[in-house]
Design brief:
87 residues, alpha+beta, Ribosomal Protein L24e, Chain: T, 2 helices, rod-shaped
C-alpha cells in the first residue's frame, strides 16, 4: 500500500514539473506585445557623414578604401565623397 502511494506521488510530481516546463517554454517563445513576428527584420547602422541611424537595407552603398559604407541618402553620400576629395 505504501509503495502505491509513493508511486502515485512520484507520478504527480513528474506531471506537475512537465506542466511548469511547458509553460516556461511557451512564454519564452512568445512574441512581444503588439507584434506579429518577433524576428529581426533589419539592422540599424550609422551614417558616417550626418551620423543618423537608419535601416541598412535602405542605405546608399559606397565602397571607400576597401570598406563598405552606407549612407542615409544619396545627398549624404555625395557630400561625403566631395569632402574626401578636397583633402
Amino acid at each position: 500500500m505504501l509503495r502505491l502511494i509513493l508511486i502515485i506521488g512520484i507520478i504527480y510530481v513528474v506531471i506537475k514539473i512537465r506542466k511548469v516546463l511547458k509553460k516556461l517554454n511557451e512564454s519564452k517563445n512568445q512574441n512581444f506585445p503588439g507584434t506579429e513576428n518577433a524576428r529581426i527584420d533589419d539592422v540599424m547602422i550609422k551614417d558616417p557623414f550626418c551620423e543618423i541611424y537608419f535601416p541598412k537595407r535602405e542605405g546608399h552603398h559606397l565602397k571607400y578604401d576597401g570598406k563598405d559604407l552606407y549612407f542615409c541618402s544619396s545627398t549624404c553620400r555625395e557630400k561625403f565623397i566631395a569632402g574626401r576629395s578636397e583633402k
